[in-house]
């Protein structure tokens, strides 16, 4: 292996202290054999960094595929790498750059080389995220980001092929909030994890709330001193709720006649067990 | 700070004891139903007051209980504030394909008519948690007495 290869880590740390940390960005595959332009292109896409060619440090030939990415700093910084000038041309390097994510501070030393990437940045209508973690992805093409210093507004990443005007952004944020809450509810309601689809989950939630409310009613009935004399093994809730389960507390307190009809209707099959006993007792 | 569960249990037991103290001798059907309803109301009221006014649903429950009359409740639905809130709410679910379920959910969760969907989901989650404690612990304890 070339000695330069071993210097890779140190190179990255040393050469870019002020800008984004390369360590997290540079996660390209190591030991990818082969050489030549093709390999280099792939790895550069993986590393997600542009690189400077030409007066940048010269790269090795085939073995040091990864090291090509480090050369991008241009002549302004001291390179410890040798770039193979012969294999790279400026236009080729720009091709590499265009396939990988670009970074704004790369634009400065590598003037026109970064132009294609620069134009790509403008396509990103939304405010890009400050962290440049797209480098960790193999193909950075999906996410376009710039390591700009974070401003004081919320950074939203626009995905590829999605509209980026403020309305759809707000809509998308709202939808994400709602789906997040739906996930929470799914965890609360038993048996809801397996189903997929908002409608079914909502149905399950509604059923669950209804059954919980029925349970409260049932237990309230059981707390009646009349009922405690009965066999406490009466389990189960009324099979179905015929009336709409509206929450109607006022009806409960003061509409004594109305709720009587209300409860007699749907719960008659359940109450028969208990009401029957009431009738049998001598009043 | 005692948990919601303990606060609810305490209040509920107190309410039932009060009910038992004032209970009449007659055990007519009407009386039975009346008691049943009082106990159910006490359960919801104890839970709502244990939660406090932090949540929209507990506020709605307490408001309904305190308002007493059906008349006033109906008037509140048609009041100008309710109308404004409803209008704001109905502007939201234009994209919503689950309008039917959303409506049912709003009817189930107290106070759900006037919130937007996102808040409704929040309140539903908390409501479910409280309903569970309401249905389980103190009642089984009381039954064993």
UniProtKB/TrEMBL annotation, chain A:
<keyword id="KW-0539">Nucleus</keyword>
<keyword id="KW-0805">Transcription regulation</keyword>
<dbReference type="InterPro" id="IPR036638">
    <property type="entry name" value="HLH_DNA-bd_sf"/>
</dbReference>
<feature type="compositionally biased region" description="Basic and acidic residues">
    <location>
        <begin position="77"/>
        <end position="94"/>
    </location>
</feature>
<feature type="compositionally biased region" description="Basic and acidic residues">
    <location>
        <begin position="140"/>
        <end position="155"/>
    </location>
</feature>
<keyword id="KW-0804">Transcription</keyword>
<dbReference type="GO" id="GO:0003700">
    <property type="term" value="F:DNA-binding transcription factor activity"/>
</dbReference>
<dbReference type="InterPro" id="IPR024097">
    <property type="entry name" value="bHLH_ZIP_TF"/>
</dbReference>
<dbReference type="InterPro" id="IPR011598">
    <property type="entry name" value="bHLH_dom"/>
</dbReference>
<dbReference type="GO" id="GO:0005634">
    <property type="term" value="C:nucleus"/>
</dbReference>
<feature type="compositionally biased region" description="Basic and acidic residues">
    <location>
        <begin position="118"/>
        <end position="130"/>
    </location>
</feature>
<feature type="region of interest" description="Disordered">
    <location>
        <begin position="39"/>
        <end position="174"/>
    </location>
</feature>
<feature type="compositionally biased region" description="Polar residues">
    <location>
        <begin position="95"/>
        <end position="107"/>
    </location>
</feature>
<feature type="domain" description="BHLH">
    <location>
        <begin position="162"/>
        <end position="212"/>
    </location>
</feature>
<protein>
    <recommendedName>
        <fullName>BHLH domain-containing protein</fullName>
    </recommendedName>
</protein>
<dbReference type="Pfam" id="PF00010">
    <property type="entry name" value="HLH"/>
</dbReference>
<dbReference type="GO" id="GO:0046983">
    <property type="term" value="F:protein dimerization activity"/>
</dbReference>
Automatic annotation (TrEMBL), chain B:
<feature type="domain" description="IBH1-like N-terminal">
    <location>
        <begin position="3"/>
        <end position="67"/>
    </location>
</feature>
<dbReference type="InterPro" id="IPR059002">
    <property type="entry name" value="IBH1_N"/>
</dbReference>
<protein>
    <recommendedName>
        <fullName>IBH1-like N-terminal domain-containing protein</fullName>
    </recommendedName>
</protein>
<dbReference type="GO" id="GO:0006355">
    <property type="term" value="P:regulation of DNA-templated transcription"/>
</dbReference>
<keyword id="KW-0805">Transcription regulation</keyword>
<dbReference type="Pfam" id="PF26576">
    <property type="entry name" value="IBH1_N"/>
</dbReference>
<keyword id="KW-0804">Transcription</keyword>
<dbReference type="InterPro" id="IPR044660">
    <property type="entry name" value="IBH1-like"/>
</dbReference>
